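Recap slide: Protein serine/threonine phosphatase PrpC, regulation of stationary phase, sequence and predicted structure.
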Amino acid sequence: MRIDSAGWTHVGRRSHNEDAWLARADLGLFVVADGLGGYEGGEVASRCVVEAFSGFCERVARDSEATWPHHPRPGHCREEDLLLNCTVLAQRAVLSRRVGQLREMGSTVVALALGARSAAVAHVGDSRLYRLRDGHLESLTRDHSLLEEMREAGVETPGRGESPYGHVITRALGTQNAEPTVRRLEVRAGDVYLLCSDGLYEPLGPERLASRLGQGRAVGVAEALVREAYAAGGRDNITAIVVGVGAK
């Protein structure tokens, strides 16, 4: 696969940026983490997550005999197991730093792994992965949030931005409930993927995301999305990674 990827971030209308991101086309690894826990804690947590993902994937790329924290699961492709192990290591990294002023910190994460034969997504919390295919935008993740749990239980709820439960997440790295949702993906030439924090998708919505994705090179699209989210009144930190997949 030929990959065109780029990331962009903006502090939004906050005083500091607790988002962290990684776009490594050479590793087939793309990660967005949204830190929780205040000024220092959120920044530290999201950075721990990104470093854990990149560190493990770099080690595996260098050494095919490298030890994995968890053995492969039956029925999982390599990329599913890779992201599961990255998430385990990220959880350990955040927990090890939760002392003193950092004791309340945590982070969401969404990660995409593209391999030669398979691909996968993993997420914890409410950072998302979207895919634009043949002009149709689809969310490939489902938020770990109280709002989504209420909907699954059949409770009628307003939109995320209108609900008092819209920002209450039920899973985060660094907390007791950090189990990731991991799924295999089927990737086609022409697909465009968007990894983003809630600071991007909330002010824009699906229609505006779909209209911008696929319109040029990844670096220009990522920057344009972030700028549009800010112009639309986005107050949170805003982060986007755009990944375009083409045939060799």
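Residues 158 and 166 are 9 Å apart (CA to CA).
DSSP finds five helices and ten strands in the chain.
(End of recap.)
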